[in-house]
Amino acid sequence: MKKINILLAAICVVLTMSCEGFLDVKPSNSAAAETSITTAADAKVIMNGIMSKMTSSSYYGRNFIMYGDAKGGDFAIRSQGRGLDALYTFNHSPSSNSYSGYWSQIYHCLAQVNNLLINIQKIEEAGNSTSALLVYKGQALTLRALMYFDLVRLYGKPYNMDKTALGVPLVLEPLDASSQPSRATVEQVYTQIVKDLTDGAPLLNKTKTNGYINYYANKAILARVYLYMENWGGALAAAEEIINSKVYTLYTNNNWVSSWTAQYNTESIFELAILQGEADLGSGSLSFYLRRHGHGSTSAMGWFMASDYWLERMNQDPDDVRWGVMDYDESYKDTDVYRYGSCYKYSGSTTLAGDGKGSSTAVNIKVIRLSEVYLIAAEAALASNSKDKAVTYLNAIRKRSPNLAPATVSNITSDMILDERSKELFAEGHRFFDMMRLNKTITFNDDFIFPMVVITHREKTINRTFHKTILPISIDEMNANEGVRSQQNPGY
After folding, report:
1. For the segment 184-198, what is each residue's pLDDT rounded down to a tens digit?
2. Which end of the chain is more exposed for a tag (fewer CB within 10 A), N or C?
């Protein structure tokens, strides 16, 4: 049987949501789906289901987060065969290790979003809309923008490299059985992303809304998108609106480490809930993949750990507060030297405290934090030649390394900001995408596992001209959808 594709995701959305318990109704066909949402309460149920699906292992629950650091040079591996090794080795082809789960899962989520939006539109046309329902419309538009932003970064070239290159199919409404959507350009996808964010923003609340998208989450995503588009003025304006609102506050050096043991903390602008018995991946979770091998369980994979290059950045200050979520990794078995390469952000703490649910693996995913917004503001301000602002925003995060001298207008560089992003956002899925958009060379810590493992599917050093920095469209999707059959990414 073919893997789920865009078309099947759209047709089967209502059925899969029902069987997962996300709908309190069970429509059996498209006609029923059109009338399945009639109130804000219905929309809330759908929205809860969408965000739960976003915590799948194929999306924010694990693989999408792992993608950014495994491919970006901030992670290294100790052995092959424990799981997700192809992300590090770039062993991808249309028929093997295509990681089509990204494509199918995100389009499945998009089908749910589009179903919600089309139902809200019908309610509006009937004159029965409410303010509460409009909030869910704003949330749906914002999530659709985030999902397309994630897809186009996986399957399309960086915006500033070639925005005329193929991106991904833009599916903005439920599909019928005859639909064969083809790929839009990178520029067309980004245009739709910005439109959805712009349309959604005025519908959203300007208060902290735990577990849901609010106005400031929308603006944070917009700031991130504009950064990738090198729209420096737009990125800075969106970031500063969040900072100046004071709805969120940065963690202090004293509470940065403990912040990972709590849900919806003062910095968390958008956070996806990981619930026990629903989205908790257990031994397949981020917690297990990043903690030390065997820590807390013989099933703990502990395969991905910090690279020597990331540790070198951190070793500039042994008192950096961010060491507090790191612990020694398994390499001590060979060297008798403790190497602090295991990350415990998704275990709550190095003692596996979790984040208040009684589980060390059911830890929420902090999708967007205020610290990232400060770093976006710093980068955008520097690119706009507003060095005073850039220094102020960078130093707000840089002070987490108390022994490092603050940046000044005379020495601040884009590389300083990039290094700070690496340290602050480690294991949060950003590094690879940062290196691609900034046209940087990535060097991998392959000697960490040599000669036990020899990497054959990429060189030790790559840049964004390497065709495997973009994923292939899977052979199953190519066979199922004639619209993309002639649109495979170059090199595959």
Report:
1. 999 999 999 999 999
2. N
